[in-house]
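Q: Give me the 3D complex with S-adenosyl-L-homocysteine.
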Amino acid sequence: MSGSLTIVGLGPGTPDWITPAAQTALDAATDLVGYGPYLDRIPEREGRTKHASDNRVEVERAGHALALAAEGKRVAVVSGGDPGVFAMAAAVFEALEAGPEAWRAIPVTVEPGITAMLAAAARAGAPLGGDFCAISLSDNLKPWEVVTARLAAVLAADLVICLYNPISKARPWQLGKALELACQHRDAATPVLFARAVGRPDEALRILTLAEAAAQAGTADMATLVMIGASSTRLIARESAAPYVYTPRSVASSPCVTSQGRT
Ligand code: SAH
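A: Here is the predicted complex, encoded as structure tokens.
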């Protein structure tokens, strides 16, 4: 049997959001590699081995997966959401680049999944209808100065900003700083979404103003996707339900006018 490796996105949480192609890849695997809680979402099956690991050793885990594939196993490396978004796919290619030449003969494929920002956006309405970007607030893999420089650039450009990895026990203050920075560029009433555990039983969506979000940064957690609206992002109020949040596709004026008060 010749080995192979597929990097599979499990979506945000509910099995309904696993694509049929991702499910087929999981069903075909002899070995599953990934962070324990993601592996727990996949039922045990005779003849399929789970290799659970810690969340912090991504490149090591990727190397282990490639070594298994080189031995002839059909390996599926699993990630939450989409595996290419702040997740295992880049770690696999990093390990492949640095690893033995023979690994390059292993067929490596990526099965996409629904990433957190798309799931959160769908729950809220259409906040990503215009231009947007995604930034990981984690400074484990890049200096904090890089994060703030990028934030300042996209705030000035008036993009909707999706913040992944907003906060953790080891990184308690970064989200507050990011939202303070946003307050310097955007109106205090700009809609901000705290979308927690989307697609899981403990899902919770909060629609705040930017000023409220900055004051309540500590109420987000690792399972939260934070979305900061652009100047055109707005709410449609409803009588007995949360408002819809949307960003129109059309843009009337230059971001320099809308976000910085100059032309
Ligand atoms: N590959 C994943 C992202 C991994 S980074 C994806 O594509 O979604 C981990 C971060 O993703 C978390 O800190 C959180 O910001 C976000 N996230 C992952 N799953 C989420 C969910 N179900 N609801 C809200 N945010 C989620």
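A quick observation: Residues 259-263 have pLDDT under 50 and may be disordered.
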